[in-house]
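Note to self: keep these together.
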Amino acid sequence: MLLTLPQETVNDVIAHLHSDERALQSLSVVAKRLTEECRRYLFASIHIDSETKIDDWCLAIPPGEDELSRYVRLLDFDTWSDGLWCLSTPLREHPAHLYSFTQVEQLKICPLDPRNHKAKDLLESLGHLPSTVRSIYIRPAGDYLATLNFLALFPHLETTIITSPLIYSDPGVVDPTNLLHRGDLILKVCRVDTGANILSCLTRPTTCYRRVGLGLVKVDNPTPLERFFEACSGSLESVQFISCFFGE
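Structure:
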């Protein structure tokens, strides 16, 4: 019955089953006209939280632009799940596999310290992604300028999600003022005060976010928030506060 329907209708049925992995696996082997659409959902995301996960993926999925890695839209590196595991070895061993992720639109790295040598290995191995990535989810740590320069690597960003930033200012590093921050910004679980807070770090003459969302944010000092809104005054369309706390 399903095979007699127009392809558009078949695609709608498969989309309705997008969260039912077993159903998609079964449909994908029924007929070739179902396989492609099922794979779009079955391989839409990959969560890597250990060296074992990298090795398992590379053993099961052959590299190549026309292989299954091309279906991956979300690439999620969880560097806390197995401790601060060493990324450098598996990344150096599987460069062809990493370059097979040609259509990644969302990149998640938690935590991320761009000046950490392990994080540098990761970023160098994923150097082909900036042309496709539209959404970034990071938990930044370390020097805030390194985080800003990391964001600057992705010229087509539409959404930036930052959670639980643990950043500091390095007085020995020159602060670039021409970094462009645009699109949608979502800040989660952070504090805004007079120190090196993430909101002040993102505030510069070129800041032009369109929509801003703050969740579980404690504002001890409103000045950084005011300066941020002033910087975005020509572009800001909406602001959303969820469970935010404002000091006196």
